[in-house]
Amino acid sequence: MTTLVTGATGFVGNHVARQLLAAGHSVRVLVRPTSQTAALDGLAVERVQGDLRDVLSLDRAMKGVRQVFHVAADYRLWARNANEIYESNLAGTRRLFDVAAQAGVNRVVYTSTVATIAVPSHGGKLPSEETHATLEQMVGHYKRSKYLAEVEAIGAAAKGLPVVIVNPTTPVGPGDWKPTPTGKIIVDFLNGKMPAYVDTGLNLVAVEDVAAGHLLAAEKGRISERYILGARNMTLKEILRSLATIAGRSAPRVRLPHAVALAAGYADEWISRLSGREPRIPVEGVKMSRHRMFVESDKATRELGYRPGSIEAALDRAVRWYAEHGYVRGNLRGKSFARSAA
């Protein structure tokens, strides 16, 4: 049985492809002509060149396929042309569902995001898969595009396509080539470019556990259901303290008010538009940080047998990978690296 993975050159998609191969699957990947493919080096996958914007390439990629992991997404918190985000995340997903339905696949696992769920809640209860957010609650084009794509997934399931939805929280670990916006935070910290922090929080999870959750969703997930793939709720201050211990760097002590961070973001984006560079402080990211994206992620444990591991170990693997692949300047001398040298 051939399994198709989209987004296999990306962070989560690459780990999904690797775990499928390890489980004995024949894996086909859809690769854009412009993609950096270093993440696929050494993997025994069949490559089909194409794009979510091209129905003909989707048809070629879907031939003989019985299972699809649609992981590809345009994950940016800033884009000069926001339509590009919607074209990939919304229109591209709609096209893939149409082609998958025509091909008669047995299962589609669609990778959404916790952003469609982790909205401010009332009464002190953490958001979960039972939380029904609105489009108006989505901050920025990335969140809006993924919210609308998730609506497409639910609609496709209602029409008979066997879609299961997974909602990863914030994955960390090795193999973040781009890196992702979360990876950029880690790399900036490791390079001493984070003199202050804002009061926010995330649910962190090992990227390997997110990939394993995808495979479990394909095997045990209920059609049209959502499953949060998360692990541990942590404030940004706690995350930076863990990174400081791992890497031997000093954690920032200054907490920056959101109003100041937002003003800096607007100024940075204005400069970016003049200079042509990507902003270092995306306004959408600052706006998102006003709310702690904490969630309850027990449903995947109950229904799928999902068992996430240690976040400290995942952060350790991430730091090591960034250091080994040239993302970090200077030597790291935290406890983990001291053990390696001993």
List its traits:
Rossmann fold; 342 residues; 3-stranded mixed β-sheet
Structure explained in plain terms:
The structure is a single chain. The protein is an alpha/beta fold. It has helices spanning 11-22, 55-62, 83-103, 140-158, 181-190, 207-220, 236-247, 258-275, 283-288, 299-304, 311-324, 335-341, and strands spanning 2-6, 26-31, 46-49, 65-70, 107-111, 163-168, 170-172, 196-197, 201-206, 226-229, 232-235, 254-255. The chain has a domain at 2-171 and 206-231 and 295-309: NAD(P)-binding Rossmann-like Domain (Rossmann fold, 3-Layer(aba) Sandwich). The protein has 12 helices and 12 strands. Helix 2 (55-62) crosses helix 3 (83-103). The radius of gyration is 20 Å and the shape is globular.
